[in-house]
Amino acid sequence: MNRKYLFGAIGLAVGFIAMFFITRSINQNAPTTAASADRPAAGATGQPNQQQMMGQVSGILEKAKNNPTDFEAQVAAAEAYLQIRQVEKGIEFVKKAIDVNPKEAAEIGLQNFMAQYYSRQKNYAESEKWYRRLIEVAPDDSDALVHLGQNFLERTPPDPDKAIMYIQSALKQKPDDGHALGHLITAFALKKDIRGAEQSFNRLKASEPNNQMIANYESMIADLKAGKPITIPAE
Fold it and tell me: Cβ atoms within 10 A of the Cβ of 131, count?
């Protein structure tokens, strides 16, 4: 059966906590499974009502608790909790799913999901942990290396040396990755390394001449050369 899990983010009104929800798309020709049958039932309007959802959540949760090594059951429980906005409970089941099968979890983006969840809370140490867990099972995931490098740029204070190390590792896999090169420019700028910033900038212009961030990076490097405070371009 062909499956794909999509993880998105919905901003909540309370503080900077972000809630993630999981939606699942299943091949139209695939048979209905026990896991998909556990989804909340829809009401007359096509949307599940609260009572139906809570009833389904109870059943899904029971299945997950009774089958702690069932990867699918843990993901289903996480999905159910996140859909009814019980974020912390949902997160715990995402963690359990990763523990059960780290490789399959990486294939559907669970470690990345956790890393971004904590990054949105500015808990960069915890976010780093989940990026590392992703890289353990997916060492060729260059995007994870870039995001791990970005993690060190967003800290207070930033750690550009570590950021450069991870971003350059990503660029060994994808030398023309504009996203990675942009963060590399920023990292060198934070180090006040004009030469490194310019070299990275030239690589970006050569690989992606139409990159919309070029003017912003050019302005940042000009400020760096002039000894002015730099403004990190927002993505």
Answer: 27
